[in-house]
């Protein structure tokens, strides 16, 4: 099992309304939309995570891990709530966030219909690995949110901090459920392909909605952020 570290369920409430600029990340459209596209995943994604972990509660015998499962579910519940509000803000701004959320929900429903409970737990552990990597980059490099609106920067840093706190919980439950390396490797590979494809799809749909899909300047700005700041490359480490 991974090292157990105490964490807690917090209850921040962010003011996500008309006071938030459309391009809240330093006025850069493509960069703002990159983060907005990630938010689309969370309401249904967090519910999928919680359901997958709770389905294996009966295999968790360690008291410390059992408590971490409770805290994990609590934190993810609050994340989902705040990203529901975030995505409502996107709808108010004219983005097709509801339709995009439905596509995420449909994908997760297909996963639920076609996989075993333990495979769904492996999917959760894989996606939690991605969120933990992103969280580490955000927390270790404050410049990644430099110029962002204070409310949005606070939201993403809070989310990152809590993802770092509970990053090993799904994996520990997966191991307790008898998960093994080959299964985990296959699930991780397929999850990686699907997740990155969806991230790109969200970027395209949001940029299309703003009429900037074919803007070389916007794509160049996003590339500079992801590549020159080493965010994308270091996510893989």
Percentage of residues in helical conformation: over 70%
Sketch the topology as an H/E string, one letter per element: HHHHHHHHH
**Computed structural class:** mainly alpha
Count, helices: 9
The fraction of residues assigned to DSSP E strands is under 5%
Q: Compute the CA-based radius of gyration.
A: 18 Å
Average pLDDT works out at: 93
**Which regions contain 5 or more consecutive residues with pLDDT less than 50?**
231-237
Largest sheet: none
Cα-to-Cα separation, first versus last residue: 21 Å
Describe the structure.
The structure is a single chain. This protein is mostly helical. The protein is built from nine helices and no strands. The two termini are 21 Å apart. The C terminus is likely disordered.
Keywords:
mainly alpha, 71% helix
Give a quick precis of the structure.
This protein is an all-alpha fold and 237 residues long.
Topology:
Elements: H1 29-54, H2 63-92, H3 97-114, H4 117-140, H5 150-165, H6 169-176, H7 181-209, H8 216-228, H9 231-235
Helix pairs in contact: 1-2, 1-3, 1-4, 1-7, 1-8, 2-6, 4-5, 4-6, 4-7
């Amino acid at each position: 099992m991974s090292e157990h570290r105490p964490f807690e369920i917090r209850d921040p409430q962010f003011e996500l309304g008309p006071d938030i600029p459309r391009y809240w990340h330093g006025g850069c459209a493509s960069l703002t939309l990159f983060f907005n596209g990630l938010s689309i995943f969370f309401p249904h994604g967090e519910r999928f995570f919680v359901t997958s972990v709770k389905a294996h509660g009966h295999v968790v015998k360690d008291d410390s891990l059992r408590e971490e499962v409770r805290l994990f579910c609590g934190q993810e519940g609050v994340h989902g709530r705040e990203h529901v509000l975030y995505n409502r803000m996107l709808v108010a701004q004219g983005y097709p966030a509801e339709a995009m959320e439905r596509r995420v929900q449909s994908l997760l429903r297909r996963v639920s219909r076609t996989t075993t409970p333990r495979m769904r737990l492996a999917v959760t552990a894989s996606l939690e690995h991605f969120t933990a990597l992103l969280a580490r980059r955000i927390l270790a490099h404050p410049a990644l949110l430099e110029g962002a609106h204070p409310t949005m920067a606070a939201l993403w840093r809070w989310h990152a901090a809590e993802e770092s706190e509970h990053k090993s919980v799904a994996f520990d439950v997966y191991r307790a459920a008898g998960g093994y390396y080959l299964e985990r490797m296959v699930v991780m590979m397929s999850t990686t392909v699907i997740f990155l494809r969806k991230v790109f799809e969200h970027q395209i749909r949001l940029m299309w909605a703003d009429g900037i899909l074919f803007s070389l300047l916007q794509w160049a700005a996003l590339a500079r952020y992801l590549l020159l700041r080493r965010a994308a490359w270091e996510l893989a480490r």
